[in-house]
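Contributing: when you submit paired examples, paste them exactly as shown. First protein:
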Amino acid sequence: MSVRKRLGSLGIGAGIGLILLFLYMPAIVIGVYSLNKGSVMGWPPELATLSWYSKAFANPAMVEGLKNSAIVAAVSVGIAVILGVPAGMGVDRFHFFGKTAFQRLLMLPFLMPGLISGLTLLTVILDFHFKLSLMTVIIAHATMLIAIVVIQMAVVLDRWNRSLELAAQDLGANEIRTFFYVTWPNIRAAIVGASLLGVAISLDETARTAFVVGEQDTLPIVVLSSLRRTLTPEINAIGTVVLVISLVGVVIWSKFGAADLARE
């Protein structure tokens, strides 16, 4: 390898390293300060303590917020998968009037500012006389996450060889057996990936949640309320826990979902 190519490779590697450092530095800082001994965050931090983790999980508001966030994420992702998978398959398999417009409108929840989207959801919820609660938060999150599942399904099915389904049916398999034995193994990775992405988005969603939440606050709302008073390593500790949960999800997908994508 020539010197020029080596320098080029080193430059590209250094650039990628700087980009990754820029992206993940906030998460690293939060993790480091969660181990700080003192209540005041200064540099360099006094490390080697897990007391803030115990204090975070001894805080009833933090624990309740984390539990509520987990419930909202699980239920809203479940609703998104149940509705999004058949919707994605319908978009891929059928041609209907307004199909292109429908596909483009799916991105609208992500393109709209959270303030406008949250205010719109609140108006609709109040028009139907729903009481603000975790259920209204679940509805708000599910309306956003359905788009992720539909888009993921449409992308996977668009590049998938449909002749496999036809071959299975020619061999005597009905539509149900064809789905579970032929279609499902090919879309499983997309569903897992969309679900994990949905959980990460739901756990972090604040703007829309602030409009439709009732008396049961989710974790981002609890943290936001705490930040109005002071910033302590206790908040960093609970943030690190959520970050670890997200990383575990990525590892699970890389172990099971990536293998499915490789087979495709």
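Second protein:
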Amino acid sequence: MVFQHYGLLPHRSVIDNAAWGLEVQGVDRDARYAKVREVLALVGLMGWEDRFPTELSGGMQQRVMIAMAIASRPDLLILDEPTTALDVTVQNQILDLIMQLKRKMGVSILFISHDLRIMLGFADRIAVMYAGVIVEEATREILFSRPGHPYTIGLIDSIPSVRRRKRRFKTIDGRMPLFSDLPQGCKFYPRCKFKMDECLQEEPELDDLSYGHISRCIRSKDLMSNGAIKDSQS
């Protein structure tokens, strides 16, 4: 797993940080160093093995974290906001690196992010969560062309676009509810511009709309058929 904040151990070198997981697993020194040198080459850090975290940029430290995560050759790599603390240029480099590793190693990736724009060019499938539950899930193409949940529609509509640069920047009204005071029925009801009285009765179940596209909204099919995302962007 790769976290948002790299948090490398400052007293350990790059190779020793990247080998930490293998060391905990009991892999002997020569074997773990051999494996780690391979993954450091994959993440573009060959030649930096004996450096320390204070000598590395933020992007390079995140590469060390990725090397640590893939050194054990996992089937699943979980990335929790791995690019949030990085500037846009370094962010793109890390995303390119992750895609290269996916192709070379055949590893599955679970990418957790608040930036839907990143998911547009990165993910195969996207699950949108609100108030602790999945409210919509679909392939990237379907989610961005035919979203079926008002929260997803609001998120897509709030992505900056040069096509709408002369228009007022759109946001979702209201704020996230406290988990200690969740609203009755649909958790998105107080912020939803498509709400009806029926939405207050009970929280909707996930509805299978088509081809693995699921949504937690009683109006999903209406929103998709009426092109709600196009209407909201007009």
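If you have annotations for the second protein, write them as plain sentences, like these:
The first strand starts at residue 76 and ends at 80.
The CA atoms of residues 151 and 188 lie 7 Å apart.
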